[in-house]
């Protein structure tokens, strides 16, 4: 190995380490999984080591392109396999394995908090090209002219893909403004109390005659489950603290609710009904793939989905 080759290899290694946080963030948002992002970075590094860097002037931009191409291939392969929303099943009942999450649960939970569970879920519904266009432009401010060659589109077509993805991401509550604020606060409080194991706070949020209905795939059980009364429902929520780490606020068919996801894929949703005093009167927990697929999931706060600014002003 001559001195020039060694110098190029050292420069590449130094730049890769300096950009690792950025490259990881790109891969995580494109793939929706911390574990899959690690695999993508490893593959990107192997490819980068074999490349001729003589003509590369902007190593950070070039490495971002390499990582994006690896992720795009993974997204296309995932789509070609026609993965269902629920891809892990219990052999005895054909029910989803709703254990914590593959890989490192703490890292997956951190990713869910950083990006937002609802956004990860909505991104999973986008086609590979849409996802790349939206994530790179709206989250990382990459110009459409630079994104277009990656997805083999013109800059104008790439802009259209990102705009279409943005419309799917953004949600608007169906309830009147005053009711929407109260309902959102109640759902957020329900999630916080579940995560924190605060039984008293949960009971206070629930109507005394609240009814919880969970389909057979939630637990799983042979039949759907119905639970009545504030304390029994709160006790059931206490058993779901681990799931709550991977759960976030979302709009479900225009109403405030919660979505739980693994690796960016929805596993179950919680839809709420409210009484006149904004206490929760009904909770429907849905894990059946057909019903999940039929539920329109959107991000509650689209202006906060980017990194370093809102997304609504970037449709240019």
Question: Outline of this structure?
Answer:
This protein has 14 helices and nine strands. The chain is α+β, with helices and mostly antiparallel strands and 316 residues long.
Description:
This protein is of the alpha+beta class and 316 residues long. It folds into two domains: 3-86 and 126-169, PhyR, sigma-like (SL) domain (Butyryl-CoA Dehydrogenase, subunit A, domain 3, Up-down Bundle), CATH 1.20.140.160; 177-300, Nuclear Transport Factor 2, Chain: A. 53% of the residues lie in helices and 16% in strands. It has 14 helices and nine strands. It has helices spanning 3-18, 20-31, 34-49, 59-80, 105-115, 117-124, 128-140, 144-151, 155-169, 177-196, 199-205, 230-238, 241-244, 289-294, and strands at residues 89-90, 95-96, 206-214, 225-228, 247-252, 255-262, 265-274, 280-286, 297-298. It has a seven-stranded mixed sheet. It has a two-stranded antiparallel sheet with strand order 1-2. The termini are far apart.
């Amino acid at each position: 190995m001559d001195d020039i080759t060694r110098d190029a290899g050292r420069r590449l290694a130094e730049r890769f380490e300096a950009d690792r946080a950025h490259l990881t963030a790109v891969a995580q948002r494109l793939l929706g999984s911390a574990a899959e992002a690690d695999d993508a970075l490893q593959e990107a590094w192997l490819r980068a080591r074999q490349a001729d860097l003589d003509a590369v002037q902007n190593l950070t931009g070039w490495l971002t392109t390499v990582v994006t191409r690896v992720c795009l291939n993974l997204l296309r392969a995932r789509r070609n396999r026609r993965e269902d929303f629920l891809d892990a099943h219990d052999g005895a009942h054909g029910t989803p394995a709703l254990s914590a999450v593959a890989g490192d649960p703490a890292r997956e939970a951190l990713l869910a908090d950083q990006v937002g569970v609802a956004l990860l879920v909505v991104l999973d519904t986008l086609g590979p090209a849409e996802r790349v266009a939206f994530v790179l432009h709206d989250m990382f401010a990459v110009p459409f002219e630079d994104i277009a060659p990656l997805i083999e589109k013109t800059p104008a077509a790439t802009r259209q893909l990102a705009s279409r993805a943005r419309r799917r991401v953004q949600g608007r509550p169906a309830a009147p403004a005053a009711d929407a604020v109260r309902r959102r606060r109640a759902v957020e409080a329900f999630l916080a109390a579940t995560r924190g194991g605060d039984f008293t706070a949960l009971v206070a949020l629930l109507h005394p005659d609240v009814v919880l209905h969970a389909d057979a795939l939630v637990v799983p059980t042979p039949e759907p489950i119905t639970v009545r009364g504030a304390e029994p429902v709160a006790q059931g929520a206490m058993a779901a603290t681990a799931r709550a780490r991977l759960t976030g606020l979302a709009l479900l068919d225009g109403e405030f609710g919660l979505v739980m996801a693994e690796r960016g894929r929805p596993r179950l949703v919680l839809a709420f009904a409210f009484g006149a005093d904004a206490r929760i009167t009904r909770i429907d927990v849905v894990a059946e793939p057909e019903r999940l697929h039929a539920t329109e999931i959107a991000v509650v706060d689209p202006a906060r989905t980017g990194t370093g600014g809102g997304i609504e002003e970037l449709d240019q």
